[in-house]
Automatic annotation (TrEMBL):
UniProtKB keywords: Metal-binding
Organism lineage: Eukaryota, Metazoa, Cnidaria, Myxozoa, Myxosporea
InterPro entries on file: Cupin_2 (IPR013096), GPI/OXD (IPR051610), RmlC-like_jellyroll (IPR014710), RmlC_Cupin_sf (IPR011051)
Keyword Metal-binding: yes
Single annotated GO MF: metal ion binding
Protein name stated in the entry: Cupin type-2 domain-containing protein
């Protein structure tokens, strides 16, 4: 991944890595970096998400709960649930996000029925 291609959105720096052009998938995914002493934007989405901790330490607020979040941790973010990442350390926090929603997944399966049995 080229670090100079990170885009600032949701109050973090990230790169949308899936889907790849010419390779359809029912999911989206991206690399995210929450800079020291910042937090990502609090938001709610129709998508369901998984966050996978890659490097550093942070806190993850999901709904009314706050969790410690670090390298190797996996968090499930239910759709329609407010969430954000808090980095109150002196180091960048890196995580990978995977998202999907039922409509996108069903549309993918319908459009690509010939490969549906292998998913």
């Amino acid at each position: 991944m080229r670090w100079d291609t990170l885009v600032h959105e949701y109050d973090l720096d990230g790169s949308r890595l899936l889907p790849w052009e010419g390779y359809p998938t029912p999911i989206g995914a991206g690399w995210c970096v929450v800079r020291p002493h910042t937090q990502s934007q609090s938001h709610t989405q129709i998508d369901q998400e998984f966050f996978i901790g890659i490097k550093g330490n942070a806190k993850l607020k999901v709904g009314d709960e706050i969790f410690q979040f670090t390298m190797g941790d996996i968090a499930a973010i239910p759709k329609h649930t407010d969430h954000y990442v808090i980095n109150d350390t002196d180091e960048d926090f890196h995580f990978y996000v995977v998202w999907w929603d039922e409509n996108t997944a069903n549309g993918f399966l319908k459009e690509h029925a010939e490969i549906g049995d292998t998913l």
